[in-house]
Amino acid sequence: MLELGIKEIREKILKHELTSEQITKAYIDEIKNSKLNAVVEVFADALTKAREMDKKIASGFSGKLAGVPIIIKDNILVKGKHASAGSRMLENYIAEYTSTVAQKMLNEGAVLFARANMDEFAMGSGTETSYYGKTFNPFDITRSPGGSSGGSAASVGGNLCAAALGTDTGGSIRQPASYCGAVGIKPTYGRVSRYGVIAFASSLDQVGPITKSVEDNAILLEVLSGRDENDETSDITPVANYTAFLNKDIRGMKIGVISSVEKMMKGLDCEAYYNKMKQFLTKHGAQLVPVEVENMELALPVYYIIAPAEAASNLARYDGVKYTFRDKDARNLEEIYRKSRTQGFGKEVKRRIMLGNYVLSSGYFDAYYNKARSLQAKLRADMLKAFNNCDVILMPSTKGEAFKIGAKVNPVDAYMEDMFTVSANITGVPAISVPFCMGKNNMPVGMQFLAPHFEEGRLYRVADFVEKHKEGK
Amino acid sequence: MITLKEIKHLEDLSKLEFTEQERQNFLTEFDGIVAFASQINNAKVSGEDKSFIQSINMANLREDVAKPGLTQAEVISNAPSKNKGCFSVPRIME
User: What is the 3-state secondary structure (H, E, C) of A117-168?
Assistant: First the structure.
């Protein structure tokens, strides 16, 4: 029963074939025996909450997530619970309020029973930079689950929960979903509230579901989405009924393919899987349409300027005064700042703070930050234009299968992991990674689709079709 | 090429401290990262509106009506040191 997803678990609970307590306990036992190090903490009140939910269901409650055990990433706040963003800096931090995404899930009856490991402050692509140690891939323990939502994706792929939440700033939902055989969506920027989510790069961060099926993903995104007055960047566009886009065919659908992206694939494993997907789509009546987005290969350097710049500002709040960690040896205020930050942050976080302050410092601001923002505007305009001629755009999610743990020694190598995912963050459009095939090392490989702003429904239509009709189905 | 002096300056700006060895490692790594970011230098862009914000349909600001927020005790609950409802730090004036 561990392999069940949101829809099936809810149905079984409502039909009294299963209780929330039973399934929550089964996952907790599985986590205890798991070698994946995907979960940082199972909440002490998990079974109490599940029992309370069983009672509520017995008295007629039937929320969209009634009784369903869901794991949240360690950067999402729930009042009274620890949230540490995988950092020593926040090891002892306890949330004083609940994030909007968690509250929305709780309102629909979810049992939020554990928090998942992640790269420190979501900075990484392998869940290797967490203060709590590395997470391992459920399909091959010698490989990375991807990151930064590697704990969430490994929990879903390894059947440690029904579904999980991740956050995606440059690919942190889609890349680990691809590596762990899960479905992951980065919604349109502004679709989901960021209130109560520990910030990395505020203009790029989005929360999204990582699930076992496209249908579960649609169900969960519908719960998470919508305007929130506590997040002024959350959008007023009405939330579509995402499940209405499922079980359709893709006949006549126009799938954009970008030649500059195809160039980026040369020599990479993903090229073969991508070509296989093109054949699959045409075989089923979709039409491939070449579209052009100039400078796609620059989305990654643009990202590695804008994201660290925002991170350097966002992480200035961790000063040894407000958030739990203070170096014991600091003797004056300046030392409290310096020593606490030096001891509290890990290597990659420090690297990005330094890089952010570099691109923001006088003399470099125009050459880097301003130039990057101009390129971002151009990429966004080109992307919108491309969607005049197609419904969705096809891209790989990742360069290939999950890499071996420890294989990325050079920071730039690690940054290249995001090469196909960052453009959606930079332009704000939604993108989904859906499992497509097994790669040459018998590891799962996902493919990515992008849609215009707020057209998540199109992504669910095509991803659902892929899931149901791909080889081996 | 980034210099050791620049690294030290960034360290000050970032309120971080590195050992000499870490600084040397950083110097090498940083050059690679900056070279990577510098790929954007060759791209031509002109007159793009970089003042755009990511959200498309932001609501009007909410009504300016006071409503309950976090209490003082809640706000300082995670402080490593507090005193009489305030964040507490060592004396800064002798």
Answer: CCCHHHCCCCCCCCCCCCCCECCECCECCCCCCHHHHHHHHCCCCCEEEEEE
